[in-house]
Specification:
Layout (H helix, E strand, L loop, with lengths): L1 H26 L1 H18 L10 H31 L8 H23 L13 H33 L1 H21 L13 H52 L1
């Protein structure tokens, strides 16, 4: 069963990657082109020659974007399938669609939303190359903290529900999650490297497109994975019921 869910998650992730590529190419790449044009104009104003492109923009926003989207989404889909297999039977959510949807929502909050509120996505020309190590380390540390806080909140929410009820336990666990990530993120380094003169509207559009792309990915994972799992289990039950009369006839 775990192997089946892993492969199903990878398949759903591959399909989600196609949606991610299409959406990112439509919504995100125009902002990237404008940010690169801004960086080029700034270099020209300083009298500096633009850095040579290792890979052309045509390849970056076509084959490169497609490859990155498919690899990332397929890997995330496989992890999603393993998490689903682990959570199945441990959470009081009977239908696969409900469990998959909740896992997608919680995963989006812990892995995407919380870290991006502290360290939002930035287009090219935003960020100091000398601080890329600090920025990357702080970002992944915040993801680890957010995931740990989410798992702790879910476990305590299950425990509290026995005495406080599901509603009160859910509110209390959500408050605990917010406190944990809020306090820990406060002590992480603050990074603000937006260059002077960079268009605020362009920065805002790029970050919104980044969030929207992640919404496309996680919603596809949650909805499509749950639908496939529920459909597969339904077919298995139908086949099991239909085979019983044949077995009874065979041994009667």
């Amino acid at each position: 069963m775990t192997r089946t869910l892993l492969l199903r998650g990878m398949l759903v992730g591959l399909i989600a990657g196609l949606f991610v590529f299409a959406f990112a190419h439509w919504a995100g790449e125009p902002s990237v082109d404008k940010a690169i044009a801004f960086e080029t104009s700034m270099d020209q104003a300083k009298g500096e020659a633009p850095e040579p492109e290792m890979v052309s923009r045509k390849i970056q926003k076509s084959v490169g974007l497609l490859t990155g989207a498919l690899v990332y989404s397929t890997a995330l889909g496989g992890i999603f399938g393993l998490v689903f297999a682990f959570a199945r039977g441990r959470l009081s959510l009977a239908r696969p669609r409900v469990l998959a949807a909740w896992l997608a929502i919680l995963g989006f909050i812990a892995i995407v939303l919380v870290p991006s509120l502290k360290y939002p996505a930035n287009p090219p020309s935003v960020g100091n190359p000398e601080t890329i190590g600090v920025r990357t380390g702080a970002y992944f540390l915040l993801i680890a903290i957010s995931l740990t806080a989410m798992m702790l909140a879910v476990q305590l929410g299950r425990y509290w529900s026995r005495s406080l009820g599901s509603w009160n336990a859910s509110l209390l666990s959500a408050l605990l999650f917010l406190i944990l990530v809020g306090v820990t993120s406060h002590f992480l380094p603050r990074i603000d490297e937006v260059p002077a003169g960079f268009p605020a509207s362009l920065l805002w559009k790029f970050r919104i497109a980044s969030w929207e792309t992640q919404v496309v990915l996680w919603s596809t994972l949650g909805l499509f994975f749950g639908w496939l799992t529920e459909r597969s289990e339904g077919l298995s039950q139908i086949q099991g019921h239909s085979s019983r009369p044949m077995e009874e006839m065979r041994y009667s």
